[in-house]
Description:
It is built from 4 helices and 5 strands; from the N terminus they run E-E-E-E-E-H-H-H-H. By secondary structure, it is α+β, with helices and mostly antiparallel strands. It folds into 2 domains: 7-81, CATH 2.40.50.140; 84-169, no CATH class. The chain has a 5-stranded mixed beta barrel with strand order 1-2-3-5-4. Strand 2 and strand 3 (35-41) form a beta hairpin.
Amino acid sequence: xxxxxKNFNIRGIILKRNKVGETDxxxxxxxxxYGKLVAVAKGVRKLTSSKRAFLEPGNLVKAYFVKxxxxxLLTQAKLISDCSQAxxxxxxxxxxxxxxxxxxxxxxxxxxxxxxxxxxxxLRTNIVKQKIKxxxxxRELENLIxxxxxxxxxxxxxxxxxxxxxxLSDRPMRSFExxxxxxx
Length: 184
């Protein structure tokens, strides 16, 4: 990963987080500048941590990092937009979870085209604010996959966007197949 200086900042969507040790987390963030960025957030599981609530999956944050020999170290985070609206019911949580998992599977550590990242942010906002129907989400995901250089899922033998993404990433999807609708 190429960071020009020892410190850098990004704006991105928290895709996932994993516990490490007693108080730390490894977080995965989708950014325009670096694509999928994996970093360590020290002490964020402490009840007194000011960053704790900001680093929840689906949140849009501005984050500051220090480059280390291994993973970058998150030093500060500022919440730009939370996704608490999507956490109001199980169906909305499932939509958001599946969307984040698809992004995690499709992207790698590589700069993302500015317009493509903007479309991802708009889709995230529409899912969070519950302003989009499943069919629209599916079409937007199909367009996203096509813009990444893959065949449109409708033109494949796969029954759903999820099946196609699982095949592309060579890893099975773990989230509930809420958005699994027929591609034909």
